[in-house]
């Protein structure tokens, strides 16, 4: 199963039609199961799915560290109807998941669906983020600039999001893409957990706007700086402020905007 496909299309420009082709991203159901118990179905790009399964499990607090996932198996279902990512976790973690499932009122999906209360949806997940490292404005600009040429699937399709990890002095160490911005960040989390990257030692970069669930996932990853090309929501700012996370928005070629905890950016004035 490929991450993109090429289709025939007609384009209307300058008053007339022309035929041609376009590369578009693939999207399909990806089911997560734990110890053969179905848990969630996500609409995702069928690429880097082991990273996705691992990162989703970490960010949704199903496991505490990647080593608690004993095995991951990918099963491509007949007739291309979807993919199942089968995971096996320790009995203790499975017992906790089953208890949690009994409290779920609806299906999981985007990271906020199926939770047991509205309060949990806006909660700051756990302790505030660690102190992390200070970075310069030039590091932030370099991180944002490094993301675009690394978005190979988006270069072909112009239709997917990306999440990356940039470490000053070393550059962009990992990047994952998906039609869903939450999925891209989960894939990145899975990749970083295998590589042993400390999220507090660099900058998470996103090609999307920043919503509250992205801030929550970044905090669970241990990140201290999250930078994105678009603006955040008001709730995302409040959550980042409470979590101690430095949130950077509207990261473009001409600069960026600091929304919370500017002390991690060298030379920024403390409001």
From TrEMBL:
Entry keyword set: Cytoplasm, Molybdenum cofactor biosynthesis, Transferase
One Pfam short name: FdhD-NarQ
Primary site of residence: cytoplasm
One biological process term in Gene Ontology: Mo-molybdopterin cofactor biosynthetic process
InterPro entries: Cytidine_deaminase-like (IPR016193), FdhD (IPR003786)
Molecular function via GO: sulfur carrier activity; sulfurtransferase activity
Subcellular localization: Cytoplasm
GO cellular component: cytoplasm
Keyword Cytoplasm: yes
Active site (record annotation): 110
Task performed by this protein: Required for formate dehydrogenase (FDH) activity. Acts as a sulfur carrier protein that transfers sulfur from IscS to the molybdenum cofactor prior to its insertion into FDH.
Family membership noted in the UniProt record: Belongs to the FdhD family.
Name by which UniProt lists this protein: Sulfur carrier protein FdhD
Species this protein is from: Lichenicoccus roseus
Encoding gene (name): fdhD
């Amino acid at each position: 199963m490929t991450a993109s496909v090429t289709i025939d299309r007609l384009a209307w420009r300058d008053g007339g039609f022309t035929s041609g082709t376009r590369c578009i991203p693939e999207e399909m159901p990806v089911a997560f199961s734990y110890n053969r118990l179905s848990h969630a179905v996500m609409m995702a790009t069928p690429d880097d799915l082991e990273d996705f399964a691992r990162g989703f499990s970490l960010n949704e607090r199903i496991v505490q560290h990647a080593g608690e996932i004993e095995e991951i198996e990918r099963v491509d279902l007949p007739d291309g109807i979807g993919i199942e990512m089968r995971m096996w976790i320790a009995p203790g973690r499975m017992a906790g998941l089953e208890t949690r499932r009994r409290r779920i009122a609806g299906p999981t999906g985007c990271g906020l669906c199926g939770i047991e209360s509205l309060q949990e949806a806006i909660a700051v997940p756990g302790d505030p983020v660690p102190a992390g490292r200070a970075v310069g404005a030039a590091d932030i600009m370099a991180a944002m600039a490094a993301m675009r040429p690394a978005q190979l699937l988006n270069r072909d399709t112009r239709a997917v999001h990306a999440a990356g990890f940039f470490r000053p002095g070393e550059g962009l160490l990992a990047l994952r893409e998906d039609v869903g911005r939450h999925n891209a960040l989960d894939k990145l989390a899975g990749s970083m957990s295998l590589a042993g990257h400390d999220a507090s030692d660099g900058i998470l970069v996103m090609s999307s706007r920043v919503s509250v669930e992205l801030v929550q996932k970044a905090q669970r990853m241990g990140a201290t700086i999250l930078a994105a090309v678009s603006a955040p929501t008001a709730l995302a700012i409040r959550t980042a402020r409470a979590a101690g996370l430095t949130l950077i928005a509207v990261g473009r070629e001409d600069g960026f905007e600091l929304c919370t905890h500017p002390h991690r950016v060298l030379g920024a004035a403390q409001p």
